[in-house]
Amino acid sequence: MDTAQFISKSKNNSVEKASFTWQTPSNIALVKYWGKSNPQIPKNASISFTLNNCHTITTIDFEKKETSEKVDFDLFFEGKQKDAFKPKIAEFFTRIQEYCPYIFDYKMTINSENSFPHSSGIASSASGLSAIAMCLMSLESALNPDLSAEKINKKASFLARLGSGSASRSIEGPMVVWGKHPEIEGSSDLFGVKFPYKVHSIFENYQDAILLVDKGEKQVSSTVGHNLMHNHPYAESRFAQANDNLSKISEILQNGDIKAFIGLVESEALTLHAMMMTSNPYFILMKPNTLEIINSIWEYRNENDSNICFTLDAGANVHVLYPENEKKAVNQFIEKELSKYCQKNQYIYDSVGFGASKK
Ligand code: PMV
User: Fold this and answer.
1) One Pfam family name from the record (predicted)?
2) Local confidence pLDDT in tens for the 359 residues of the chain
3) Which of 115, 203, 232, 256 is the most exposed place for a label (fewest CB within 10 A)?
4) Is the pTM of this model over 0.90?
C-alpha cells in the first residue's frame, strides 16, 4: 500500500510558534466497521453519515523547542488538565511520527472540548482524533504551503484513522466511505473518501436523534471489540456481508429506495450486536430500554406509514434516523414516547453535516 505519499516533505522550518483551532464532527456508520488488521486496516468497507451538532473543538498551540528527541505535549479537556487521556494520544503520536516528523520539533498544548455531554456514551474518539489530525495538517501546510486542500483532507483522514478507524470518516461529509470497495471510486483502506455519487434528495439533511439510554463507560472498548473478530466463527461471512451491503446501500442512496435503506441499516445495527453476542467472550451491549425503543420505533413505523428507523453503535444508545420531511412528527414521537426510555430523559437532535471546519 502506498503510504510513502503521506510522509511530510516540509520545505521550511521557520515556524516558531503557531496555533490552530478546528471543529470536527462525530459520525454514525450505516454499514459498520467491526474487525481490523494492523495498522488499522479495516476488514470490510464502511459508510457513515457525518453528523452536524455532535462535534469536538480542539486548539493546538505549537511552540518550537530546543531539542527534538521526544514528542512533548500537554492535554486539557474542557479546561482541565486530563492526564487520563494522554496515553491514547501519546500512542497516536507514535503511530503518526513517521508521517509527521515535525511533531518532534514543537511543544504541543492541546485544548479540547465536546459539544455533547461528557460520558454520554457517544464515542468521542472519531471527532477527537480527527480534530487533532486537522490541527496537525494546518501546521504541516504552514511548513509546506504547496499542499492542496484535497491533499490536506486526505492525509488528515489517513492520520485520524491511525488513532481510531472511524475517525477517518470524520473529516468530510455528508457521507464518507472508508475501506477499499470495487464499486466506490477512489475508496481506500488508508483513508475515508466522500461518497462519490449523486445522492437522492430524500437523504438530504437526514435527521439523527441520539437517545442516551446508558451514559456509562463503554462495556467493551473498541480495541477489545475489534479483537473479538479474530477467530470469530462468523467473521469471514460478516466481512463479505458488509461489503455486499455497501454495494446495496450505494445503489439505495442514489435511487432513493428508503424502504430498502431501513431494512439494510437496521440489519447492520443488529448484526454488529450479534457479532458481540456470538464472540468469545460474549457481550450484550443493549439494555432493556434499547429494546423498548426499537419495538416502539417498529410500532410507530407500522401505524404511521413512517420511514423512521434506528441504528446502534457499540453500546446501548439508539440513533433514530428519519428524513427531514418527517421531522416534526418524529420529534413529537421522541418527546412523548421515546424520551422516557432515556437516562434523565436525555437525547440530542442532530442531522447530517459537512465535516471539519476551521475556527
Ligand atoms: O473507530 P473505532 O475503532 O472506535 O471503531 C468503531 C466501530 C463502530 O463504531 C462500532 C462502527 C463504525 O463503523 O463506526
Assistant:
1) MDD_C
2) 799 999 998 766 789 999 999 999 999 999 999 999 999 999 999 999 999 999 999 999 999 998 888 999 999 999 999 888 899 999 999 999 999 999 999 999 999 999 987 666 677 899 999 999 999 999 999 999 999 999 999 999 999 999 999 999 999 999 999 999 999 999 999 999 999 999 999 999 999 999 999 877 677 888 899 999 999 999 999 999 999 999 999 999 999 999 999 999 999 999 999 999 999 999 999 999 999 999 999 999 999 999 999 999 999 999 999 999 999 999 999 999 999 999 999 999 999 999 999 99
3) 256
4) yes
Say if ligand 1 is within 6 A of residue 166 CB. Answer: yes
Tell me how far the alpha carbon of residue 82 lies from the centroid of ligand 1, in angstroms: 23
CATH number at 1-359 = 3.30.230.10
The domain segmentation of the chain, as residue ranges, is 1-359
Cα(34)–Cα(32) distance, rounded to whole angstroms? 6
Task: Find out whether the beta carbon of 355 lies less than 6 Å from any atom of ligand 1.
Answer: no
The CB density around residue 69, as the number of other CB atoms within 10 Å, is 8
- Ligand 1: centre distance to CA 222 (Å): 7
C-alpha cell at 88: 491514547
CA of 136 to the centre of ligand 1 (A): 23
Q: Relative to the CA of 272, which ligand 1 atom is closest?
A: 10
Q: Are strands 106-114 and 80-81 parallel, antiparallel or unpaired?
A: unpaired
Helix (H) or strand (E) holding 73: strand 72-77
- Determine the atom of ligand 1 nearest the C-alpha atom of 167: 1
Question: In ligand 1, which atom is closest to the CA atom of 36?
Answer: 3
Distance of CA 226 from the midpoint of ligand 1 (Å): 9
Output the residue whose Cα is nearest ligand 1's atom 9.
313
C-alpha 49/C-alpha 189 separation (Å) is 18
